[in-house]
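Q: I have 102 residues here and want to know how they pack in 3D. Can you give me a structure?
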Amino acid sequence: MQRPRMGERYRSIRSVQVGGLALLAAPATGGFHAVLPTDETVTVEFDPPPHATAISARPERYSELETVLVPENERKGSKYVGYALIIGFDKLAESFEKVSDA
């Protein structure tokens, strides 16, 4: 598998556990684990730096999946502004298929 690039889109071919970051309007973030369902498409948000082992990704169905993926205590926090998924290169290769280039 070639190194993922910003703007590429990948579809989950099975349910897969991913990491998540709760983005806060503060100098901090929260973290969580979630299961991304089968047939969900994500877009790589940034070109990973050379030392990276994972991508930051945004699901196409961002709003619809928010209540499924992000724990309620994170979503209900007063400084919560959104989320991002963290998907390891190994999981990307095993549980996703590329559906479009950048």
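Q: Anything worth noting?
A: Residues 20 and 32 are 5 Å apart (CA to CA). The first strand starts at residue 9 and ends at 12.
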